[in-house]
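Reference record
================
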Amino acid sequence: MLAMYNPMHVQSVSLVDPYVVEALRRLMGRCVVFETTRGRLEGTILDVKPDHVLVQLHSHQACVRIAEIVWTMPI
């Protein structure tokens, strides 16, 4: 018997690292450099959620998934 795929029953799983979230929250309002799996970003942290960071990048904002961040450095 084949199982039918139903997109209404897809479950998303996201790991939360409370130490990283807390470290990012301490950097809110500061300009930082993020090295991500897609490249480097530089901007100001506007908000931190358990799974992503809202960053002001010059004239626009970006949501960066915390799982994609390799390292962070305040500048």
